[in-house]
């Protein structure tokens, strides 16, 4: 196996490369426009933006990969404009083009997202090509999935849909969610306890490796949600609160939190940071289940214990990770 990874410098990629290097699994390179978050991965890095179509083709020609893992993407939901997610649309098209023109490739894994489908009326999709995206990010990933299905790639292909991924090397949660909990400023809306789909990043890495190891005919044209079994949101939130503060999170009346969220929307328009707004508030109330059983049956979990995973994540933030985050670096 000669594995080419795009986006290996980021969150999931850093954990996946850790898995590969710690187990001496396979020869690989990381194609990314950004230097790796983990400096120990610098030797595997090949600087390239996936929007640079010809440069990407040249790297494919030179390396002649047998397997491709496409993680490179813009993954936030901050914009409601599809054109802001060009990495996910044009970038994926460039990746597919490179695979189509490289006969050495046997399997291509395209990373999508659970956000390609969300429905209160029909919580779980009836088909793997059924889409109800609710964000511009989700629309961009829908388009990348359709480009994969409609491509002329000679290789087998697999689509993975990460759920809400967390763990070491996540650059967002320590500055937002976890900092708010640590300060004792997180308030849960009343007795709401929706079912959510979370994904400890090392379980995601394990499941991706399982796909790469599988016979190509077994995973060809398959879609796998990657992550953990869905769980009650308060179970997940309280695990972090107990680890950080020794206490469960506080609850707050739903009507008052809704009012604060409306105020947050107004403040956001003034470009002033505010921790609560209507999108986040509604997300705290909504169930977001995903059909994980197919993945769990095929590849299982490498890290099944929630409390241990939370401890490992907080340990990383307080240890090597603190140098990325002023709040945690300066905390005594």
What does the model show?
The mean pLDDT is 95. The protein is α/β, with parallel strands linked by helices. It has a domain at 2-162: NAD(P)-binding Rossmann-like Domain (Rossmann fold, 3-Layer(aba) Sandwich). Helix 9 packs antiparallel against helix 10 (278-285). It is globular. It starts with a strand and ends with a helix. It has helices at residues 11-23, 53-63, 86-100, 136-149, 177-182, 201-213, 216-219, 233-245, 254-269, 278-285, 293-299, 306-318, 326-330; strands at residues 2-6, 27-32, 45-47, 67-70, 107-111, 156-162, 164-166, 187-189, 195-196, 198-200, 222-226, 231-232, 250-252. It contains 13 helices and 13 strands. Strand 4, helix 3 (86-100) and strand 5 form a beta-alpha-beta unit. The strands form four sheets. The protein has a seven-stranded parallel beta sheet, sandwiched between helices. Residues 4-227 form the NAD-dependent epimerase/dehydratase domain. Belongs to the NAD(P)-dependent epimerase/dehydratase family. It holds the Pfam family Epimerase.
Could you outline the blueprint of secondary structure elements for this entry?
Layout: E1 2-6, H1 11-23, E2 27-32, E3 45-47, H2 53-63, E4 67-70, H3 86-100, E5 107-111, H4 136-149, E6 156-162, E7 164-166, H5 177-182, E8 187-189, E9 195-196, E10 198-200, H6 201-213, H7 216-219, E11 222-226, E12 231-232, H8 233-245, E13 250-252, H9 254-269, H10 278-285, H11 293-299, H12 306-318, H13 326-330
Parallel strand pairs: 1-2, 1-4, 2-3, 4-5, 5-6, 6-11, 7-10, 8-13
Antiparallel strand pairs: 9-12
Helix pairs in contact: 1-6, 2-3, 3-4, 8-12, 9-10
Domain NAD-dependent epimerase/dehydratase: 4-227
Pfam families: Epimerase (PF01370)
Protein name: NAD-dependent epimerase/dehydratase family protein
């Amino acid at each position: 196996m000669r594995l080419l990874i795009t986006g290996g410098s980021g969150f999931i990629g850093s954990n996946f490369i850790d898995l590969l290097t710690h187990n001496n699994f396979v020869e690989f390179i990381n194609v990314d426009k950004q230097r790796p978050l983990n400096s120990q991965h610098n030797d595997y890095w090949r600087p390239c933006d996936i929007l640079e179509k010809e440069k990407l083709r040249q790297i494919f020609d030179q390396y002649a990969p047998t397997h491709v893992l496409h993680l490179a993407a813009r993954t936030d939901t901050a914009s409601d404009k599809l054109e802001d997610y060009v990495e996910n649309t044009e970038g994926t098209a460039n990746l597919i083009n490179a695979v189509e023109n490289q006969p050495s490739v046997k399997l291509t894994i395209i990373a999508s997202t659970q956000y390609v489908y969300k429905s209160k009326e029909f919580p779980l999709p009836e088909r793997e090509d059924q889409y109800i995206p609710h964000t511009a990010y989700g629309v961009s990933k829908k388009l990348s999935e359709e480009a994969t299905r409609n491509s002329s790639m000679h290789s087998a292909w697999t689509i993975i849909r990460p759920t809400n991924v967390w763990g070491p090397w996540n650059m967002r949660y320590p500055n937002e969610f976890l900092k708010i909990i640590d300060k004792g400023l997180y308030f849960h809306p009343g007795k709401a306890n929706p079912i959510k789909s979370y994904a400890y990043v090392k379980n995601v890495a394990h499941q991706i490796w399982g796909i790469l190891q599988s016979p190509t005919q077994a995973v060809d044209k398959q879609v796998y949600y990657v992550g953990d079994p869905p769980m009650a949101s308060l179970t997940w939130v309280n695990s972090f609160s107990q680890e950080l503060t020794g206490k469960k999170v506080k609850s707050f009346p739903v009507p008052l939190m809704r009012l604060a969220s409306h105020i947050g929307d107004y403040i956001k328009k003034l470009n002033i940071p505010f921790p609560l707004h209507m999108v986040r508030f509604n997300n705290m109330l909504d169930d977001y289940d995903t059909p994980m059983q197919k993945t769990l049956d095929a590849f299982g979990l490498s890290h099944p214990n929630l409390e241990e995973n939370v401890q490992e994540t907080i340990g990383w933030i307080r240890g090597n990770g603190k140098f990325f985050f002023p709040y945690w670096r300066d905390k005594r």
